[in-house]
């Protein structure tokens, strides 16, 4: 089956279990999967474990049925690319330079390995062009807005032609315009490149509108995985997020969550 | 209208990007060449400057056309002026390169070999030799102070690295621990000063001021070889170090072994700094300021930034060496005093202009 499969993945920080024998999949190619859940549910840990940045104590990963190493290494660095929330501030690099750096970061040391060829530059420019930011090529990273920086970060990942793209809260610092632009870009690139895209999101409505799959985590376990409209239910919103909410279609036909009140915690506890 | 397109609506073509990238590369190489030319000019001026001013023609004759019998000018040039001037360049290059690398691996613009405690450790090592005559067995008398300084500088770098790895410290934690090492070694040096005899105290204070007067050709040879080995190693990691500036997680996700990169770089920095400080004493601020100047001139593509910082450090030290002879005519002020006097306002300038990024 094409996509990323997770089997019995467990992550512990000391004695505290953060992910407990978690299994799901496959997260399909050509689709965006949203990781949803309250703070501390294990979303970012799962994403980092998928990226190989957090050591998993147990479990396996497979991409298109082939085993994938659990730790980030040169061998899988072109298959799986992880994007943190934002680019650091104060970096004196031009946009095109930063994309070229990402392209040649893991080349083996050899004569010319640190040189970007004309083909490299054209490839990097092509990625910027597809994201609609080629006009920023010669700008310094420091001059960019948050949304532009996020797109440049995505360009740094895409220039490596990944099979799996993992993004940790890419919309958290962006205004509505930039949120929409980034999600639309992610969707078109995910389809165009037929890659597995996994995004940690806090905004459930964005997941309902822009993602193909949703995985809902609670206490280090998956409590729902499938189409977003099937995963996000009133009962789960109450149980997992502790809110009383309605789920209604908007004028465009997308489902949306409207929160009415905080749930009665004692009642939820008795249900659980 | 999307807010991603700049107001002028200009969209670069692929050819534009290729041309523009080439221009940028040429500009940076040109910048390196210009700094190189300035270094040669500074070197000549440094060699000319002293109690007896030498015409350039005499200087060049002494360097390139030495006769069978050494003249007074030959002696002045080969025994005093040239070793001082060349040592200034090498120490500046070593500190500039080390500063640039350490600021990158610790992701901290205030990090430098000095603020990590390497220089203070070297001073303590030297003080043990000068005050208590505690030296490394088997080392020739001419090298005992340098050997002690080198050993302690290296030891402090290893201590910093070991504790940082053992406790899984963040980069900010490493910088804080470095600062605590600075204070600890300064306290130990102060203790040595307290118990030192008058002669030993004078020697120790002079050593800690940082002076090129200790330069000689064997030491220059050692430092030159260390730089000749370290610089290519640094450049072979240039792309990885640049990627590290995009964020540690991002770099790790690109397949870079960040821990290994940090360790290798720290070792290189430790050896280079330890050698530089052990030969000329404590030289503050060059390792801190040169990377900032190089960043402004060459950007942070480390293929240009690292050699740029080394050359900038060399130029700064050469200019400091000239200033140390000119400030009070006829008196050679320890060069460490000059770098500190010039470095402190520059350092404050960096902090004030950082707009909260530090």
Structural class of chain A: alpha/beta
Q: Oligomeric state of the chains? A: heterodimer
Q: Compute the number of helices of chain A.
A: 9
Flag low-confidence runs of chain A: none
Mean of pLDDT of chain B: 86
Number of DSSP strands of chain B?
0
Shape of chain A: globular
Number of helices of chain B: 14
Largest two-chain interface: A-B, 65 and 45 residues
Helix-strand pattern of chain A: EEEHEEEHHHEHEHEEHHEEH
What does this structure look like?
The complex is a heterodimer of chains A (272) and B (358). Chain A has helices at 43-51, 95-104, 118-130, 146-158, 176-193, 204-210, 228-231, 234-241, 265-271, and strands at residues 4-13, 16-27, 31-36, 58-63, 66-68, 80-83, 164-168, 196-200, 213-218, 221-226, 243-249, 255-262. Chain A is of the alpha/beta class. A six-stranded mixed beta sheet of chain A has the order 6-7-8-3-9-10, with helices on both faces. In chain A, helix 2 (95-104) runs parallel beside helix 4 (146-158) and helix 4 runs parallel beside helix 5 (176-193). The two termini of chain A are 34 Å apart. Helix content of chain B is 74%, strand content 0%. Chain B has helices at residues 14-48, 56-64, 72-105, 118-131, 144-166, 171-195, 198-209, 217-236, 238-244, 248-253, 258-280, 286-298, 302-326, 335-352. Chain B is mainly α and 358 residues long. The interface between A and B is large, with 65 and 45 residues.
Explain briefly what this protein structure is.
Chain A has 272 residues and is of the alpha/beta class. Chain A is built from 9 helices and 12 strands.
């Amino acid at each position: 089956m094409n996509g990323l499969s997770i089997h019995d993945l467990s992550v512990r920080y000391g004695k505290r279990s953060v992910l407990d024998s978690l299994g799901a999949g496959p997260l399909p190619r050509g689709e965006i999967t949203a990781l949803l859940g309250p703070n501390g549910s294990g979303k970012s840990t799962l994403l980092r474990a998928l990226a190989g940045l957090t050591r998993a104590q147990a479990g396996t990963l497979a991409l298109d049925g082939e085993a994938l190493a659990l730790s980030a290494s040169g061998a899988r660095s072109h298959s799986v690319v992880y994007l943190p929330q934002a680019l650091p501030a104060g970096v004196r690099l031009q946009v095109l330079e930063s994309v070229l750096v990402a392209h040649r970061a893991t080349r083996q040391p050899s004569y010319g390995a640190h040189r970007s060829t004309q083909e490299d530059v054209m490839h990097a420019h092509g990625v910027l062009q597809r994201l609609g930011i080629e006009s920023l090529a010669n700008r310094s990273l420091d001059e960019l807005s948050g949304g532009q920086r996020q797109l440049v970060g995505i360009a740094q990942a895409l220039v490596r032609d990944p099979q799996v793209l993992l993004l940790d809260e890419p919309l958290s610092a962006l205004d509505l315009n930039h949120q929409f632009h980034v999600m639309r870009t992610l969707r078109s690139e995910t389809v165009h490149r037929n890659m597995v895209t996994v995004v940690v999101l806090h905004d459930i409505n964005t997941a309902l509108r822009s993602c193909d799959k949703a995985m809902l985590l609670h206490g280090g376990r998956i409590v729902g995985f499938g189409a977003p409209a099937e995963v996000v239910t009133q009962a789960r919103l109450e149980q997992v997020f502790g809110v009383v909410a309605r789920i209604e279609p908007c004028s465009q036909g997308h489902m949306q969550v409207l929160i009415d009140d905080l749930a009665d915690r004692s009642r939820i506890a008795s249900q659980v | 209208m999307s807010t991603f397109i700049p107001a002028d609506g200009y969209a670069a073509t692929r050819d534009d990007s290729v041309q523009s990238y080439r221009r940028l590369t040429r500009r940076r190489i040109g910048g390196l060449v210009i700094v190189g030319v300035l270094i040669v000019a500074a070197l000549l001026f440094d060699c000319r400057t002293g109690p007896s001013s030498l015409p350039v023609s005499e200087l060049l004759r002494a360097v390139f056309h030495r006769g069978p019998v050494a003249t007074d000018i030959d002696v002045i040039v080969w025994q005093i002026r040239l070793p001082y001037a060349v040592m200034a360049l090498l120490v500046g290059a070593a500190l500039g390169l080390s500063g640039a690398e350490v600021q990158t691996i610790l992701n901290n613009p205030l990090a430098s070999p000095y603020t990590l405690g390497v220089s203070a450790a070297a001073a303590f090592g030297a003080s043990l030799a000068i005050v208590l005559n505690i030296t490394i067995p088997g080392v020739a008398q001419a090298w005992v102070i340098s050997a002690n300084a080198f050993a302690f500088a290296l030891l402090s770098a290893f201590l910093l690295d070991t504790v940082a790895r053992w406790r899984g410290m963040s980069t900010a934690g490493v910088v804080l621990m470095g600062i605590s090492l600075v204070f600890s070694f300064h306290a130990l040096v102060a203790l040595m000063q307290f118990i030192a005899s008058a002669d030993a105290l004078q020697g120790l204070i002079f050593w800690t001021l940082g002076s090129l007067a200790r330069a000689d050709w064997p030491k220059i040879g050692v430092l030159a070889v260390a730089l000749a080995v370290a610089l290519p190693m640094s450049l072979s990691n240039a792309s990885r170090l640049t990627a590290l500036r995009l964020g540690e997680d991002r770099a790790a996700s690109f397949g870079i072994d960040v821990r290994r990169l940090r360790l290798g770089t720290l070792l290189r920095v430790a050896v280079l700094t330890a050698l530089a400080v052990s030969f000329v004493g404590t030289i503050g601020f060059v390792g801190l300021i040169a990377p900032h100047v190089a960043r402004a001139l060459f950007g942070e593509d480390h293929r240009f930034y690292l050699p740029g910082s080394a050359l900038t450090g060399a130029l700064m030290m050469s200019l400091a060496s000239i200033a140390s002879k000119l400030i009070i005519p006829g008196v050679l002020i320890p060069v460490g005093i000059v770098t500190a006097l010039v470095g402190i306002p520059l350092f404050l300038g960096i902090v004030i202009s950082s707009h909260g990024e530090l």
